[in-house]
Write a structure and sequence with these properties.
Blueprint lengths: L2 H21 L16 H12 L11 E11 L1 H6 L9 E10 L14 E8 L5 E7 L9 H11 L10 H10 L5 H8 L2 E2 L7 E2 L4 E4 L5 E10 L5 E2 L1 H7 L4 H10 L4 E8 L19 E12 L21 E3 L3 H19 L6
Antiparallel strand pairs: 1-2, 1-11, 2-3, 3-4, 5-9, 6-8, 7-8, 7-12, 8-10, 10-11
Helix pairs in contact: 2-4, 2-9, 4-5
This protein binds protoporphyrin IX containing FE (HEM).
C-alpha cells in the first residue's frame, strides 16, 4: 500500500467519523430528541440490573484466569508502528482469559463470548492495554445503544425473565445489536481459551518512525488453529474445564497467538464496533504473543488491572469511536466497585 493510499483510507474513515458525530446532535430527523448521553455509572448500574450483581467481581468478564506471556514484534510491525512493542525485543505481557458477562460462575460449555485481555509492559513504564473478544463485532455502536439494549434485556421482577416484546422492539429498531450474538451462535463452543480468535473490534491508527499512518482493526489468531467442541463434547466437558485446560496447554508450551492487523481501505468504516472490516482485507502479522505461565491462584497480577483499550503507547491511537471512548470511565467505575467490595478472583 502506498503512503498516499494509507492517508486516503485514514482521511475517509475520519470523514465518516465526522458524519457520524453530526448524527449524534440532540435533534434527529423527524423532530425526535436523541437519547441523553449515558454516564459510566449508569452503564455499570445497568450491567448489574440486567446481568446480576456479583460483589467483588468484574462487572464484565467476571469468570477469568490470569496468566503471563511475552510478545515479540515482527519487522512488519516495526514498519507499521514506532511503538516500542514492535522493537523485536521480548515484551512481558499480563494476560487474562475470561468468559463474557458478569457472572463468576458462568458455564464454560456454552456458546458465549470468550475474552482475551492484555497488558503489554513496555520500556520506560509505558503500558498498552487491550480487551479483545471472540467476535468480530460488539453488540452496540454507542453507549446509548448499549444502554437501550441492556434495558430491553433486564429481567422483569415478576417473571425473572426479559419481556420478549421489549427485546424484539429494541432489536427491530436497532438490528445491528444482534450481529455479535449471531456470530457467537454460529460457532462451536471453543475447546479452549487458546483455540479461538479474538478481535479488538475498534479501529486503531498506527504511525511509524517516518510518520506514515496505517489504519485497521486487529485480531489475535491462535497459532495452533481454531478448535471447537461438538454439542456432545461440550455437554461431557461440563461447566468448568477452561482453567485446567489452559494450565495444561501452557505447561506444554502450546499457547500462542499471532497479532494480526487487517488493514483498512478507502471507504471502510472504522469508527463503529458493530461493523467489521470487509472480508479479504490485507492482513499483516505484527508479532506473536506466547503465554508462558498461569497464575497459581488464577488472580495473579490481574486484580488491579482493568484492561482499558484507550491506554495505548506512542505510535498507536484509537479512532474517534464513541464506544471505545466510553470504555475508560466504565472500567474505572467497575474496578472501583469490585476493589471496594474486596476484589475477588477465582
Ligand atoms: C461502553 C461500553 C462498554 C462497557 C460499559 C463495558 C463494561 C465493562 C466492564 C465494567 C468491564 C470490567 C472492568 C473491570 O472491572 O476491570 C469490562 C471488561 C471488558 N470488556 Fe467491556 N464494556 C464496554 C465495551 C466493550 C467493548 C466494545 C468490548 C469489545 C472488545 C469489550 C470487551 C471487554 C473485555 C475483553 C473486558 C476484559 C475482561 C477482563 O478483565 O478480563 N467491552 N467491560
Amino acid at each position: 500500500m502506498t503512503q498516499a493510499h494509507r492517508f486516503s483510507a485514514l482521511s475517509l474513515s475520519l470523514a465518516a467519523a465526522g458524519f457520524l458525530a453530526s448524527l449524534a446532535s440532540p435533534v434527529v430527523a423527524g423532530g425526535h430528541t436523541a437519547p441523553a448521553p449515558v454516564s459510566p455509572v449508569a452503564l455499570v448500574d445497568q450491567f448489574e440490573a440486567t446481568g446480576g450483581k456479583f460483589e467483588g467481581y468484574r462487572r464484565s468478564g467476571a469468570k477469568g484466569i490470569c496468566a503471563m506471556g511475552e510478545f515479540v514484534g515482527s519487522s512488519e510491525g516495526k514498519g507499521i508502528s514506532s511503538a516500542s512493542a514492535f522493537s523485536g525485543a521480548k515484551i512481558p505481557v499480563i494476560v487474562r482469559f475470561s468468559v463474557g458477562g458478569g457472572n463468576p460462575k458462568a458455564p464454560d460449555n456454552a456458546k458465549s463470548q470468550r475474552n482475551l485481555a492484555l497488558q503489554f509492559d513496555l520500556p520506560g513504564g509505558e503500558v498498552w492495554q487491550h480487551g479483545n473478544i471472540s467476535a468480530p463485532v460488539f453488540g452496540a455502536s454507542t453507549p446509548e445503544q448499549l444502554m437501550g439494549r441492556l434495558q430491553s434485556l433486564q429481567p422483569d421482577p415478576a417473571t425473572k425473565a426479559a419481556d420478549p416484546a421489549k427485546v424484539k422492539a429494541f432489536a427491530d429498531a436497532n438490528p445491528e445489536v444482534l450481529l455479535q450474538g449471531r456470530h457467537i451462535a454460529s460457532q462451536p463452543v471453543p475447546a479452549s481459551y487458546a483455540s479461538v480468535n479474538y478481535w479488538g473490534v475498534h479501529g486503531f491508527v498506527f504511525t511509524n518512525a517516518q510518520g506514515q499512518k496505517t489504519a485497521g482493526k486487529w485480531i489475535f489468531e491462535p497459532v495452533g488453529g481454531v478448535q471447537g467442541l461438538t454439542d456432545d463434547q461440550a455437554k461431557e466437558k461440563g461447566a468448568n474445564f477452561l482453567f485446567d485446560d489452559i494450565r495444561q496447554r501452557v505447561a506444554a508450551g502450546q499457547v500462542a497467538f499471532n497479532f494480526n492487523l487487517e488493514v483498512a481501505e478507502a471507504g471502510d468504516v472504522l469508527d463503529k464496533a458493530t461493523v467489521p472490516l470487509p472480508a479479504g482485507r490485507k492482513k499483516v502479522t505484527l508479532g506473536t504473543l506466547k503465554v508462558t505461565s498461569v497464575a497459581a491462584d488464577a488472580g495473579g497480577a490481574c486484580l488491579n488491572v482493568n484492561f482499558d483499550p484507550n491506554r495505548v503507547p506512542k505510535g498507536v491511537e484509537g479512532v474517534n469511536d464513541p464506544m471505545l471512548k466510553a470504555r475508560t470511565a466504565s472500567y474505572a467505575v467497575s474496578m472501583g466497585r469490585r476493589l471496594a467490595e474486596g476484589g475477588k478472583q477465582q
